[in-house]
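Students often ask why we bother encoding 3D structure as a string. The short answer is that it lets us treat folding as translation between two languages. Here is a chain of 729 residues written in the first language.
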Amino acid sequence: MQIQPSPLKVIFNPPGVQSGMPGDILQLYAIVINQGNQSAVIDVFFDEAFQIFSQSNISPRQRIALAPQQKTEVSFEFQIPINTQPGTYSYTLIVDAPEHYPQETPISYLRQIKVQTKEHTVIRENDPTFFVKPATNPSNPLIYKFGEALQIEVTVDNRSSRVDRFRLTCLDFEETWFTIRYLKTGLERAGLLSGGSGLELNPGDQGQILLQFHPPTDIFAGSYSPTIRLHSNNSPDLVLLDLVYIQIPEIYHIDVELNTILGTVSRTFGKYEVKLANRGNTVRELAFSAKTQDEEELCTYEFQPSKVKVLPTKSAVVNLIVNPVHRWRRPFFGSALINFKIEVQDPKKLPIPDKFPQATLVWKSRPWWQFLLLLLLVLGLLGGAALIVWRILHPEPLKLENFQSSSLSYEEGDRVRLTWDIGNVARLQKLVLLTTGEETKEDLLYDSNNTLKEPLGCQRQQQVLNCTNFPGTTKPGEYTFTLKAFDRSGQLYQMSPLKLKIKQNPAPEVISFQADKSEYEKGQKVILSWEIRNPEQLKKLQIIRKQEDGTVFNEYDFNQFNQGIPMPIKSFCKKDNQQLNCKNIASAVNQPGTYIFALQPFAKSIYQPNIKQTETNKVKIKPKPFEIVYFTLNDSSEPNIVVQEGQPVILKWKVVGEDINVQISNLGNVKSEDSIPLIANQALPSQIEIIVTDKFNQSPLRKGFFIKVQPVPTPNNNIAPSNVPDNSL
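And here it is in the second language, the structure alphabet:
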């Protein structure tokens, strides 16, 4: 059967393996020829393996249309990622025409890219090259099989115009780990170059070097990437490198051996030794346990250490202590054989042996004298039973013990704490605590008839009732505490009374309280200062203002002394030597009058009696003085005024002052500033006076003048000369 040629043909440039370093940009050209008898739409693209060289998840792809016997060139440009590991990477270029050549396509072309290390020098046109077969990379390493040499073939091309000699080295492995063989090329017989230690090639020739890896058996499992270098005699400075990726498979083989050091015991414990040998090539971390092979577990097992780490080809020793428990189970006759086996666990779930060694601990029988102890024990049990029966018939009485306080002296605010113990508490019927002193009371702490529970802070321990820090009173004074217990027969048990004292805190004491002066003008603030002893016991301060009429005002309340000095007076006060000194506290009063200020402290203690007020001396606030600005008749304030009868006159006045009362004779109360027109006649009073008073009882002001109304003269001959003075006033 004749094979039909493919309708599509592809010619690549470059045709062979492409080389580059991480970060290099490579170009691939492909000439696609349609050798078929019909036009076709052709897709040219890469498989998924090419994505390592693509910046996206989509591989490069081109679509072309070709008529029969037509050809065209497609090109691809891509960059080797900067983080690509050195190695030879394979990918596939696919040519597909599913619509026009479905039977003959797709066609796959295997390609390779050799990623070189950055230490490579620039390869010129005439420089030698080499490639490794089979090609490897981090995702496609060579698998090493123990006992077999791992062989790779290095093909060398001499592209120069001179005969050259090549040598291969591998500096990453020890020399005993690999073997290099240079295949003969025929030049050795010509005598041009010596053979055995290199590969001699004529210009343009190609030769092979065989590199065999045979690592030692104790090599660790894992991935290895040795670097191989090709040396040229003609170009000694040329650096030709490549990496070979080798995977050493894991071998898991652990030998476990159990040796007996002390296997027969009587009063001590058994000693054993677990030997471990790692015959594999991985680091093993192992844990240990043991269990009995008998029906019942009679021993405890302690491994020292409980976990070990064993390197490849290394050994480790773990000590095992087997300790019999339940000593009373020790046999009286013969010996007990305790069979057990050890177990090894790998936390990483790596393979371990299916079977583990076993051992036997021999537990020797008891000595003869222990029979005597057994007999004495039986007699003791019989005696104990008799004692129990006797105690049932004659129960032990109650026992009151350790009745005491945590202290014999307390400060106010502390609570008395009592402690006591009562033995044979099952006999307790009723428990009473009697307190006498500043306050007297009797507390029923326990009553079995009323199912009253144990007192606060008490708990039973077997037949003893332990009571610790039982809370008592907090009120200051001297007290006597008596604990009374009654058993089920009604008998009273009590200990000596306990006498305690709770000291009362000192009360706040006003040392001084005064105003800075006794008289003030209206508008001035009354400034107060005080000193108080024991301010830490102060809860509140009040400043009270008392007036002459008996009225009392609460001037200030300063609270929250338990948080320090209250904010309104904090900047005016300071504490010094257990004293609170406050100065320049301004009173709120500003009305004239006579006042007495009182300072009333309040103590924190609820048991402290009321503290007496401390008063200042009388403080007087004087009103502003009043004044008669003017009081005139026809703009004259002369004390004697003469007016002509029928003449109009104007009475004017002005008085200034606060809360004043103005009176004018014959007119009554008037405004503080006004004017009144009058007619000089016989009804006009001969004396007019203004009187000013205020509500503060200041001395009244008076001012006035005499008025003479001169009649109009009657015409006659006896007219007195006008220059004669009138002495009637």
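Translate back mentally: Residues 14 and 28 are 7 Å apart (CA to CA). Keep this in mind for the problem set.
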